[in-house]
């Protein structure tokens, strides 16, 4: 009986060829993955801000006092709290569980937003910029547009109608309009 002592395996050339193919496919797929991650980050940020606006409006109606939705100057955080000075100096008071609490949240990593007035001018301010103050009847003091940006994703605009408190989202073109 004859036993074959030859071991099967891959040659160095075959292993190198497979590694080269994997590298090329990865290089081609990377830009698509970056765009996909940017898309999900921006949509997550838009959903978080829409929730914050809805909470501010609901609290204003429920508690019968003005509530403010405000932006941090770094363009990454927002806060919802009663429109009273004690809520806007220092850190946020805990939770919206009970009456009169504050909610502070951050956007996903790599996403920023900025407030714009209807004419497109930036609202920026020292401390918290207050683009929306909801009255006890559910209406906001003025219309507001927030623009969200992330690398690899088209910018989104969230618009608030002051009279109705309605929020809408639209995708902006390459120029941001």
Total number of strands: 8
The helix fraction, in percent, is: 25-40%
CATH class: Alpha Beta
User: Taking Cα atoms only, what radius of gyration do you get, to the nearest Å?
Assistant: 25 Å
DSSP summary: helix tally: 1
Mean pLDDT over the full residue set: 80
Structural category: alpha+beta
CATH-derived topology:
minor pseudopilin epsh fold
Distance between the termini: 81 Å
Name the CATH superfamily classification.
minor pseudopilin epsh domain
Report the oligomer: single chain
CATH architecture type: 3-Layer(bab) Sandwich
Spatial order of strands in the largest sheet: 3-2-1-5
Number of domains: 1
Largest sheet, if any?
4 strands, antiparallel
Global morphology: elongated
Strand content: 15-25%
SSE order: HEEEEEEEE
Uncertain regions spanning at least 5 consecutive residues: 95-99, 118-126
List the helices and strands and how they pair.
Layout lengths: L11 H52 L3 E5 L5 E6 L20 E4 L4 E6 L12 E6 L9 E7 L5 E5 L6 E5 L6
Antiparallel strand pairs: 1-2, 1-5, 2-3, 4-6, 6-7, 7-8
Structural summary, described in words:
This protein is of the alpha+beta class. It has a single domain (12-171), classed as minor pseudopilin epsh domain (minor pseudopilin epsh fold, 3-Layer(bab) Sandwich). It contains one helix and eight strands. The protein has one helix at residues 12-63, and strands at 67-71, 77-82, 103-106, 111-116, 129-134, 144-150, 156-160, 167-171. The strands form two sheets. A four-stranded antiparallel sheet has the order 3-2-1-5, covered by helices on one side. Strands 4-6-7-8 form a four-stranded antiparallel sheet, covered by helices on one side. A hairpin with a 5-residue loop joins strand 1 and strand 2 (77-82). The radius of gyration is 25 Å and the shape is elongated. Residues 95-99 and 118-126 have low confidence and may be disordered.
